Amino acid sequence: MTQQQIKAKIQTPMSKSDPNDVKIESIPLPPPEMWSTLDNSTAIAPASVSAEAAVAPVAPAVFFGKQRSTTVPLQFPFTLDGSEITDVTIRRLTLGEVQELLAKTRGRTLVFMEIYAEMTGLSVETLKGLDDEDGVAITDAAYDFLPPRFKTDDVSSAT
User: Could you report the per-residue pLDDT of 115-159, keeping only the tens digit for each?
Assistant: First the structure.
């Protein structure tokens, strides 16, 4: 009497951006009589990596050419932590900053206000607390500095 071969189903990701795009395959497993002889332990324990060590250092770059920041004067200045804020500077993000932002928000939708907060150095709460006139001026200017991967033709810059 021959035994039927046992198979396991595995999913192989086919896309970096779509977690549902997977290839499902069946792979054969060893026969049960061999299971006791298999060594499934890890020969070398993976080294633990601290969060600080996992982040590669960033070499400072000196940019030239296109404008990398802009300052928006506020129509309605405010105080924050005892300092008077009369304008807000918006700057382009580096690749490393975009990657860190994506890593912080992994598993949920990244909203424009989080990107704008990173670009201005202000918190999302502070940006939402601005007078509407100043808020629109800042979000419009920030939208112009968004990395292309975040821009969509059908999304309003005020969101």
Answer: 999 999 999 999 999 999 999 999 999 998 888 888 775 444 444
The domain locations on the chain are 69-150
Secondary structure in 3-state letters for the chain: CCCCCCEEEEEEECCCCCCCCEEEEEEECCCHHHHHHCCCCCCCCCCCCCHHHHCCCCCCCCCCCCCCEEEEEEEEEEEECCEEEEEEEEECCCHHHHHHHHHHCCCCCCCHHHHHHHHHCCCHHHHHCCCHHHHHHHHHHHHHCCCHHHCCCCCCCCC
Q: 80: which strand partners?
A: 83
Find how far residue 34's CA is from the centre of its chain. 45
Q: Please, how many CA atoms are within 13 Å of residue 91, restricted to the half-sphere of its CB? A: 11
Q: What CA–CA distance (Å, rounded) separates 158 from 91?
A: 17
Question: CB of 120 within 8 A of CB of 127?
Answer: yes
pTM for this predicted structure: 0.57
- Greater confidence, 59 or 46? 59
Q: pLDDT by residue (tens digit) across 69-94?
A: 899 999 999 998 889 999 999 999 98
